[in-house]
Amino acid sequence: MRNEQLLRILFIADIYGVPGRRATHKLLPSIIEQFNVDFVIANGENIAGGFGITKPLARKLISYGVNIITLGNHFWDREEIHNELDNIEYLLRPANYPETVPGKGYTVIELPEKGIQLGVINLQGRVFMPLIDCPFQKANSILHKIKNKTNVIFVDFHAEATSEKKAMGYFLDGRVSAVVGTHTHIQTADECILPNGTAYITDTGMTGPHNSVIGVKKEAVIEHFLNGVSVRFSTAQAGVRFEGVIVDIDTKSGKGYSIQRISIPVEIQNKNQKERK
I want to staple 96 with a disulfide (CB 3.0 to 4.6 A). Which of 20, 72, 118, 133 is the partner? Predict the structure, then answer.
């Protein structure tokens, strides 16, 4: 029996397009039951055809069992979401975009069944990424605001460079419960509890088609690299996997207790009718 002092969070790695959504819909209820999950966070910045998110698709993820959706550099790709970001409580965009950008980058949620509050923070890196505000300074600022409310804090750091992710892990070690990396869609095998008690992984992977180049049909990407010309990228369909991590957090100390990678093949039946992007 699991220690009731522990909070178990399932984090679903970047959900990519229709295949990723279908995998989430198919597997999430059974994973929640099998692993006795308390709370579900998912990165959804790629759910709309691989680029961006829409309000109807965000609602779909919530209906599947997701509690909070984090985003990344593609959060702004779909124009229809621009005026909705301030109105969707369960949607977080990276906190270190300028304050003039709609939406919010962190939240603190009541979990009455555990008798605690959970902080969730979304940050974006700057190495090989759009040059926005410093994620390290923004993390300090947010922690200053919420540390008096809770010490159970989960961070999705959406970043390209391994070095920047590792640096953020050590920067926040002992100050937050978990730092998980997203964006590169390749699951890393370095999950650990850092020296001061923060659960960490450099990249959680991708929930979507793995017979691809990070979700895109491989032929198009190869053509782009071979010839240096712009080609239309479209979502691959084969080799679908459900990926992410399960993190146990000690609710008294706020420290990470364990972190476990998951990578599960999913059989997805192609539908005849087109699913809305």
Answer: 133
